[in-house]
Design brief:
- This protein is mostly beta strands.
- Helices cover 0% and strands 53% of the residues.
- The strands form four sheets. Strands 1, 2, 7, 8, 11, 12, 15, 16, 17, 21 and 22 form an eleven-stranded mixed beta sheet that branches.
- 19% of the residues are buried.
């Protein structure tokens, strides 16, 4: 997890080989870390179990008032990285450009809770529910694309024509050690790590983009513009790119009802037992069954058809078509131009 909560950095460079042949390159990165701050020592040496009180005190609702221990936090981070390079050839009425653009997105989530994995709920000081967690755990996603393009623009008289082609390859994966690292836990047993796996194995696409501008009166003040372009769904850590991550369906928490029969504020039941337990007659407690019977397991609720995760023309897309009339209303040099 990065120390900085938010950081943006950008670098760019332009190098003219000749007056007609400039080269450009750039890199940008956005880092973000969110989810709250954990008090120093709260997780490593915290023997206390957090309690959420449901009742009211002197008419003041105490719902969600937590005391006695640190309730824990979910932490998240992301890193967006984009880099590009291009070369342009310009001769006045003609402009030709080729380039490369790529992006790599890193995201992750951490379960940041006390190692005992417990939280209690009281009503007017009487226990009625407990929560069990498997902690710590984490989930990681990675998505990348590489794009190559070529575009050309010609001006002949009153007509300017533009045309471009773009090829893009996009894919995603879940690296070992970052996608579902489940460490030693009171309720989860020994630590284990999900193996590396693919999300989108590989989208391949070629898209055209084209446009035309016509100077109606030849004075550069009135123009009719047409454009037609194909755009793909953004390649980032969501949708098809992350659905196949098994760590996303890891059942990390469950609740169960609790009757503290001996009033010692300790659940005298076998909390690793998913079933209802009535130990009241023996001087123990009554603990209900796990509300989440999948607790501690990885359950895939969604299975994707492999055919939607790779291939040519499989990635979702749409077409954009536009027609516009542009008119310069204010004379040049008057201090502004309106359209």
């Amino acid at each position: 997890i990065w120390r900085d909560r938010e950081r943006i950095q950008q670098y760019s460079s332009t190098s003219p080989v000749t007056s007609k042949l400039p080269l450009e390159a750039g890199y940008s990165q956005f880092l973000s870390n969110w989810g709250g701050q954990t008090p120093a020592g709260a997780l490593d040496t915290q023997p206390f179990i957090p309690v959420t009180e449901q009742s009211t005190l002197a008419g003041v609702p105490l719902n969600n008032f937590v005391y006695h221990g640190f309730a824990g936090l979910g932490n998240n981070y992301q890193s967006h990285n984009v880099w590009r390079a291009s070369m342009t050839y310009v001769t006045g009425s003609h402009s030709f450009k080729v380039g490369y653009q790529a992006a790599y997105e890193v995201t992750g989530s951490f379960g940041n809770f006390s190692k005992h994995g417990l939280a209690y709920r009281f009503n007017n000081g009487t226990p009625n529910q407990l929560t069990q967690r498997i902690t710590p755990w984490q989930q990681g996603n990675r998505t990348r694309y590489d794009g190559f393009f070529a575009q050309d623009q010609w001006t002949r008289g009153r007509v300017t024509l533009q045309g471009a082609l773009r090829y893009e390859h996009a894919w995603s994966f879940f690296p070992e050690g970052k996608s579902g690292l489940l460490e030693d836990s009171v309720f989860g047993g020994a630590a284990y790590t999900l193996p590396a796996a693919d999300g989108v194995k590989g989208y391949h696409d070629i898209a055209p983009r084209m446009g035309m501008a016509y100077d109606v009166f030849g004075d550069g003040k009135t123009a009719i513009k047409l454009n037609l372009s194909k755009y793909w769904q953004s390649a980032n850590n969501e949708g098809n790119y992350t659905t196949a991550n098994r760590a996303a369906t890891f059942a990390q928490t469950t609740t169960r009802s609790w009757t503290d029969g001996n009033r010692n504020f300790v659940p005298d039941c076998d909390l690793t037992n998913r079933n209802r337990q009535d130990n009241l007659a023996a001087g123990g407690d009554l603990c209900g069954a796990w509300d989440n019977q999948n607790f501690g397991s990885i359950v895939s609720a969604t299975t994707l058809n492999p055919d939607v995760l790779e291939g040519w023309g499989v990635r979702p897309f749409d077409w954009q078509f536009g027609v516009s009339l542009q008119q310069e209303l204010l004379p040049r040099g008057s201090g502004g131009v309106a359209y």
